[in-house]
Amino acid sequence: MGKMVWAHLAVPVKEVSLDVILPSGQAFRWKKHHDEWVSVLKDLVIVLRQDDNQISYRALASNNLPVPDSILEPVLSDYFNLSIKLSRLYREFGVRDSYFKKISPSYTGIRILRQDPWETLVTFICSSNNNIKRITQMIDNLCRTYGEYITTYNNIEYYTFPRPVSLCTSTCVQTLRDLGFGYRAAYIYKTALQVNEWESAGNSLSQLRGQPYEQVREFLLGFKGVGPKVADCVSLMAFDCHSCVPIDTHIWNIVQKRYATTAQLRASAKSKTMSKIMYDTLSQHLRKLWGHYAGWAQAVIFISELRKNE
DNA sequence: AGAATACCTCAGCA
DNA sequence: ATGCTGAGGTATT
Hints:
This protein has helices at residues 18-21, 69-79, 86-96, 98-103, 117-126, 132-146, 164-167, 172-178, 184-200, 213-221, 228-238, 249-258, 263-268, 276-290, 294-308, and strands at residues 7-9, 31-33, 36-41, 44-50, 55-60, 149-153, 156-159. It is an alpha+beta fold. It folds into three domains: 7-83, TATA-Binding Protein (2-Layer Sandwich), CATH 3.30.310.40; 117-238, Hypothetical protein, domain 2 (Endonuclease III, domain 1), CATH 1.10.340.30; 249-308, no CATH class. Helix 5 runs antiparallel to helix 9 and helix 10 crosses helix 11. It is globular, with a radius of gyration of 20 Å. The termini are far apart. The structure holds a DNA duplex.
């Protein structure tokens, strides 16, 4: 083993709280081992430690060669969206929304990660009618089976996230079912075929970044297993659509409990399933309330609700 | 059009 | 114990 070389990001916990955002259902591949958070970004195993004033980081590559900080720092800065100042957003949300102002002091450092589009798409297809624990297990199985081995750290093997082409095999659906994907196995396979074809034609999913939300959303809704909620999660977490507010069961619950709702919204509460119209109405309502970075406010409210149920 | 139902799996609960 | 419910929904009817 080479000498451990740590580099540092001067980021206070109030801007990024790893312990809050990494295990809370935004990304599903971070593992905590003692005081270290470990995951894979691109083809590197990333190791993070955090104290009050900084995040220390280093990376392990498959060749065991050191990864220069000049490569690593931009990767992390991008992944954690560090150009966006959280303190400023919290202040603005607090002015717009008294409930946010009330609860946010207990939930600081919650920000939206900027994740890989393909990985995010697959992950959130898996998230439908599912829970964080199981989603984490499914994604872990997927990478072990179809990803490329990178290295072992703390006795845990780390793999890349498989490229679409790796899933375009005749046995994929059955394999995924055996790995616990249930009915989502077929969705993943079909999506892999589509994305592979799209990329083979010289495109990349990343080129959707910077496109208007409506176009990103329409594109995403074209995949099997992607409905309004999943499309919004991917738009927000991979395609820079910061104002987009995914409406899940937790947000729906909290809106009914905490926010004044219109007669139309209250009436819909009786319905077993949320209609597309109702979904859009609610999402836009919250977007207007919270503003251009509404999706970031949603993340705070979502985690506060998640934590309360524990 | 809009609402109900089936869908994989599994932990938590009565 | 066996059966039900809900988990960051979606496709189908």
